[in-house]
Design brief:
This protein is mainly β. The chain has one domain. The protein is built from 1 helix and 8 strands. The radius of gyration is 13 Å and the shape is globular.
């Protein structure tokens, strides 16, 4: 599993394995000015997910992820999954959310 070192901490942000769902390859970027790493997933249903971990994300300082549902390239706040971002997600919770987002109608 690849790792991206955060510039402002000794902790590392893991690249998440994609669960068994059809998706475009994740776009990943390291954001050194924010001490963050972000993965973008896009699904055939038009939805996607932004999965980010960093100094200023919910759970990031504890090594956890923040997940936002995307519709196209925009944040989407009106799905059955959530009406906000979901913070404090471990790897298993992120994988579950990716499967649920990929299954949205």
């Amino acid at each position: 599993m690849a790792e991206a070192t955060r510039s402002d901490r000794t902790a590392t942000a893991r690249v998440l394995p994609l669960p068994q769902v059809e998706a475009t390859p994740a776009e990943s970027k390291h954001i050194p000015t924010q001490g963050s790493v972000q993965h973008i997933y896009r699904f055939p249903n038009g939805y996607g997910a932004s999965v980010i971990q960093g100094t200023y994300t919910y759970g990031g300082p504890d090594g956890l992820w923040e997940v936002a549902v995307l519709k196209g390239k925009s944040l989407c706040y009106d799905t059955p999954i959530t009406d906000d971002v979901l913070g404090y997600c471990d790897d298993e919770a992120v994988a579950d959310l990716l499967v649920r987002i990929a299954a949205l109608p």
